[in-house]
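Project standup — Tuesday

K.O.: blocked on the structure for the chain from last sprint. Re-posting the sequence here as requested.
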Amino acid sequence: MQDRVRLTIDDREILAERGSSILKAAREAGITIPTLCHHPDQRVKALCRVCVVEVERSRTHQAACAFPVADGMVVRTRSPAVREARRTILELIIARHPLDCLQCGRNLRCELQTLAERMGVRDANFHRLDKPPELDTSSPSLVRDPAKCIVCRRCVETCQEVQQVGVLFPLHRGADTTVGTAGGRGLLDAVCTMCGQCSLTCPTGAIVERDHTRQVWEALGNPEKHVVVQTAPATRVTIGEEFGMEPGSIVTGKLVAALRRLGFDRVFDTDFTADLTILEEAHELLHRVKEGGVLPLITSCSPGWVKYVEHFFPQLLPNVSSCKSPQQMFGALAKTYYAQRAGLDAADIYVVSVMPCTAKKFEAGRPEMTASGHPDVDAVLTSRELGRMLREAGIDFLDLPEEDYDLPLGISTGAGAIFGASGGVMEAALRTAYEAITGRALETLDITAVRGLDGIKEAVIQADGLVVKAVVGHGLGNARKLCELVASGAADYHFIEIMGCPGGCIGGGGQPIPTTNAIRSRRMDAIYEVDRNMPIRKSHENQVVKALYAEFLGRPLSEKSHQLLHTHYQPRERYPT
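H.V.: unblocked you, prediction finished:
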């Protein structure tokens, strides 16, 4: 009992962990205290003061998120004075916030809007201090609207501490404080990696994804376009959250049915090219190990990570796999292999991706991603954008039947599915590489050492005397640690998987909001459940991939596969002028 204290909150006597905050103690007791700057995965900030409470014998209201509990403490969270203080604080915030909710990308999903409704804020009791418009539309992935920033600094902590990119900062002082970039640069010129993690933690519409829904609607309405869509591995365990389902709900069949009802001519699966990526990448690893190539080989599936290494560790670009991401491999094949089979002109095929990632929008626009002479991918929808399209179309997602992907690019394996979680690419690659080296299957396909939310995870696979040392990092802060090891020569790994977003794609910057570590964990569990339930769990056993090589590509790392499925990356300035 020494580690517990006894206190009273709203006339209820409760036990709480010594040193914990009033907010934590209240929530564990089922008592709701509103918050705005607080985020469950971040440090305490106590900036917004929306969580103020009365503490007996304290002269002023205290921020529940920062004030520690103590024996005998008496707390009131619902008194008239507390409610009035919170309303006043919200009214002051709203007096400096645009009132264009109907035009905002976070309308009905904005924490400020939700709090104002919950706390009964109806009147404008303070003179409005509208900020001048400074919309930053320089990025192909994200749009910043500083006028909607409430200076909670959640995006700052994400960018500075979690991702360690350092693009966003608090600027100026006092009432003039805002959040922005060094020198007021646009995101495109501020070495932003486009990961979108800032948009996940922003409570308002100050940072949102660049919307591609209008151009997708136009393509769907154009009878001269053959519009195909691919869905990323992680989206099948997250899109349900857009419609009120629990995190980790597996909705693969409903997702296919929903896209078909939107009017797509074919609904395909990015898992197919995830399997293809494994074959190309596993053979690339074996080639480097056996022929003395540059090691360690580092994965290239995550476009946020690729842009990061181009800016911050360009000396490691020879280590990065030349494989395109599964999204881009799919686009290249859709406009060549699929076009040939379907008797279509590549110019008439419009490829849409449904992705968990805002950086995929940047990746799709890279000039080198034009294997067919046309962009591999024409438009990228995040999970959030697809949710908006389905609601706009009046499609009742929850009532949809389960339907199957179209052929031929809709057949995949469990190995392709686990690409959606941190460690999944590594696990899938090792399943194939081990068998390629030994001719034998692994005794167990579940390589649990590379699973989970630990920032850096290691595994060693021994195959006929060949020892493959592998490591997994997720989130760019962990990527920095691994890059520093490799750059210093201290790393003895053969294979490194890096995902730009914490948790991998299940925590991507385009995923449903909220996305917390607890939610990431539930989504990750669901991804591995998808894998367990698949009849085939190894990429090299995908029969359609085998047919693709036999009919079209020849073999992994062939001249044609290099032309379509591989690419190159380029050093970028860290401090662009």
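K.O.: great, moving the ticket to review. The chain has three domains: 4-78, 105-117+124-209, 222-565. The longest strand covers residues 466-474.
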